[in-house]
Design goal:
The protein has about 750 residues and is α/β, with parallel strands linked by helices. The protein has 5 domains: about 55 residues, N-terminal domain of TfIIb, CATH 2.20.25; about 220 residues, Rossmann fold (3-Layer(aba) Sandwich), CATH 3.40.50; about 210 residues, 3-Layer(aba) Sandwich (Dimethylsulfoxide Reductase, domain 2); about 80 residues, no CATH class; about 130 residues, Barwin-like endoglucanases (Beta Barrel). It has 25 helices and 29 strands. The protein has a 7-stranded mixed beta sheet with strand order 5-4-17-16-15-6-7, covered by helices on one side. A 4-stranded parallel beta sheet has the order 11-10-9-13.
């Protein structure tokens, strides 16, 4: 028998970044459990983390590239696959131009430092402005509101969970999701700690979720009413003289403008739009103001609605008005180890709409277009029509709006290239599928999530099992060379050298600690490793905590992280104003013009008559969007893809528990099994996101046995938040009847 060893790594499956203890015999995983010595997660693990072995061994996972020939996907060698990419892609680019190509980046891109680092190389080589991602079905409102407030779309403050006395959560269910845009392993334990130290957390949600059940108070809100209610909280703070700006006050602009903007949103005026009684609204505002520290945290349920950007903006505004920005226990900014020391310099501010989509004129946001517009950009004729598409680690046919139209659009493409480990609902349309190595066969560092972490942490994981094929950075490098015209046989080291040189040039630029040193000298000090790891090492060593390539011997290096497999704790979050700001004014701009103008639309919505039932989504701890449904241990048991209906609604509509209901919207209709429960509000129904594994041509044997239904058959691609381009996936008007 092979020798047993114990290895440690960070789980890459969600944003919580939990540490794992992996027991191995040779290249075989024997057991996975939580790493009790991990400096951040302290042994916490959810059911997904223990299934990395099943993902590694999944017989449906692709081990070799697939090429579509005569309508069927067949295995080929890597060289054959890249030659096929060149043969299919280049004639399209030559005939129709660079803008005929597009790229879609799925959620796992930010769970993988190689993809995070190298994605830009392919976008640049492609030479097209047609960039789409999962951000516009998830979190773009948070980027946009942070951009307007603080100057940068990545300057997202997070609730300081470990020190707050009062947490108000809207549209968030971290006991199921493990947290989102707030990296906090053992989120449930952190919430309990708030209560243990005498604090309080309140959940605002139309469903009595697991998080709501654990909360000190659960407020039922009308789906989509979050922005109006937060505006009412701000109104109460002003009206009752409760505004106290605290230490952040010298850095704030626009407080009086906010007072005027929220003036119409009295507690009484928003009651019908929110279902929350005026006396409750006033009490919550007073509790926020009176708490020793407080934070407002809104997530996907409050982002993927009609007023997603305003909701995100107002959540920060309420926190600011109670004096809880940039202070312990409030909203604070992490300082990831790879980030360079910030200097107080004038910023360029944040803009949207530097260009627009061809068909409907949707503005660009944060360098990308709304993914809700992707189908029409493919299927509508005319100059600039998308004919070639790259998808990387995404399943837009299941995660994006009006998926039946998108499915037909994908099938009509001249060429589609996918980087994905599965032949799924989206990649079945691809001409070439290039499978990346599974999680245990690649190194890991959370470049993205340490910028959203409730504590400053650094933790690196080495690959535990030899990869069967090329690493992601090699796949992307070869695609970039093909797209750039260098050919399928070009050396990927060309791209690797360019990516690394860009990071090193930035490190020596300006008057920082590495100023005046030569990039070649820094490169000579890098430890041998994968190309992505060499870039990561350069970023860490030149970051604020780094060793500055020998100038700060006690600083961070990749070797030091390897020697500390449980991670290195860099400390609690610290105040970062005003250095974090990159607005033109150099201050927090509370009432940026685009946001202020959109408030009128919110005010108009208060007068809408009540409509019929609306659909919301939901999450489950054993699920991660659409791609964790091929693991038997995660999908077995009680059926989860059900339509949740309140008992009174079920009686009115003639529905029985376990029966079938037909749900119809403006764009589609489907049939789903009924689950009658009092855990959902009246006039609200709920379907989980990411199901519908019944597509012809997909090869996901476990998922296909329990396919569920695709909720995005019901979402309208024309319904988006105008400021962020985010699709409206919650609060969708529907009709419900017995099937």
């Amino acid at each position: 028998m092979a020798e047993r060893t114990t290895q440690f790594r960070t789980c890459p499956l969600c944003e919580a970044t939990c540490g794992l203890e992996v027991t191995m015999e040779g290249d075989s995983v024997v057991r996975i459990r939580g790493d009790r010595e991990d400096v951040f997660s302290h042994g916490f693990i959810c059911p997904k983390g223990s299934t990395l072995r099943q993902l590694q061994d999944d017989p449906d996972r692709l081990r070799a590239p697939l090429v579509k020939r005569d309508g069927q996907h067949v295995e080929v060698s890597w060289d054959e696959a890249f030659a096929e990419v060149e043969q299919l892609l280049m004639p399209v680019l030559e005939e129709w131009g660079r803008e005929s190509a597009a790229i879609y980046l799925g959620n796992p891109n930010v769970h993988n430092h190689a993809l995070t680092i190298y994605g830009r190389a392919l976008i640049t080589a492609m030479g097209s402005r047609n960039v789409y991602s999962a951000s516009t079905v998830d979190q773009m409102p948070r980027h946009v509101s942070s951009g307007f407030l603080y100057g940068g779309p990545l300057s997202i403050p997070v609730p300081d969970l470990d020190r707050t006395d009062y947490l108000l959560m809207l549209g968030a269910n971290p006991l199921e999701s493990n947290g989102s845009l707030c990296t906090a392993p053992d989120f449930p334990g952190r919430l309990r700690s708030i209560q243990d130290r005498g604090g309080k957390f309140v959940v605002v949600d139309p469903r009595r979720t697991r998080s709501a059940k654990a909360a000190d108070e659960h407020l039922v809100i009308r789906p989509g009413g979050d922005a109006a209610w937060l505006a009412a909280l701000a109104n109460v703070l002003f009206a009752e003289g409760l505004v106290e700006l605290g230490a952040a006050e010298p850095n704030l602009d626009g407080v009086d403008d906010v007072r005027n903007l929220v003036g119409p949103f009295t507690a009484e005026a928003v009651e019908a739009a929110t279902w929350i009684a005026p006396e409750v609204t006033r009490r919550i505002a007073r509790e926020l103001a009176d708490a020793p520290s407080a934070a407002v945290y809104g997530r996907i349920g409050s982002n993927t609605v009609e007023f997603g950007t305003l909701t995100s903006w107002l959540a920060d505004v309420v926190t600011i008005l109670t004096g809880n920005l940039d202070r312990p226990g409030g909203l604070m900014w992490p300082t990831p180890a790879h980030q360079k020391p910030l200097k107080r310099e004038p910023g360029k501010g944040f803009r949207i709409g530097r260009r627009s989509t061809r068909v409907s004129g949707h503005p660009e946001v944060n360098g990308e277009f709304p993914v809700a517009a992707l189908a029409e950009e493919i299927d509508q004729p005319g100059e600039g029509r998308i004919r070639a598409l790259f998808t990387i680690a995404g399943n837009p046919e299941r995660s994006c709006p009006d998926s039946r139209r998108l499915s037909a659009a994908l099938e009509s493409l001249d060429v589609m290239i996918s980087i994905d480990p599965y032949l799924n609902e989206t990649t079945r349309h691809a001409d070439v599928i290039l499978p990346p190595p599974p999680a245990l066969s690649r190194s890991h560092y959370d470049l993205a999530f340490y910028g959203l972490s409730v504590r400053n942490i650094a933790n690196y994981s080495s690959a535990l099992i030899t990869a069967e094929g090329p690493l992601e950075e090699d796949i992307i490098a070869r695609l970039a060379l093909i797209a750039g015209g260098a050919g399928a046989d070009a050396d990927p080291q060309i791209i690797h050298g360019m990516v690394l040189d860009t990071v090193l040039q930035a490190a020596v630029r300006g008057d920082g600690p590495l100023s005046g040193r030569h990039p070649a000298e820094l490169e000579s000090q890098l430890v041998d490793g994968s190309p992505a790891d060499r870039v990561l090492e350069a970023m860490l060593r030149s970051g604020w905590a780094g060793d500055q390539f020998g100038a700060e011997p006690e600083g961070l290096t990749l070797d030091k992280l390897r020697a500390n497999p449980h991670g290195i704790d860099l400390g609690a979050l610290t105040p970062r104003l005003p250095q974090i700001l990159s607005t033109e004014s150099g201050r927090v701009e509370l009432a940026a013009e685009p946001v202020a103008e959109d408030v009128a639309r919110l005010q108009d919505s208060l007068d809408r008559p009540p409509g019929g039932p609306v659909l919301v989504g939901r999450r489950h701890l054993r699920s991660n969007n659409s791609w964790m449904h091929n693991v038997e241990v995660l999908v077995k048991g009680k059926e989860r893809c059900t339509l949740q209906v309140h008992p009174d609604d079920a009686a009115d509509w003639g529905l029985g528990d376990g029966g079938s209901a037909q749900i119809s919207s403006a764009v589609g209709s489907l049939v789903a099994p009924v689950e009658i429960t009092d855990e959902i509000a009246r006039s609200v129904v709920s379907l989980p996101h990411g199901w519908g594994h019944d597509a012809d041509g997909a090869r996901m044997s476990v998922a296909s046995r329990r396919p569920g239904v695709n909720s995005n058959v019901l979402t309208d691609a024309s319904a988006i938040d105008p400021l962020s381009g985010n699709a409206i996936l919650n609060g969708i008007p529907v009709s419900v009847s017995p099937a």
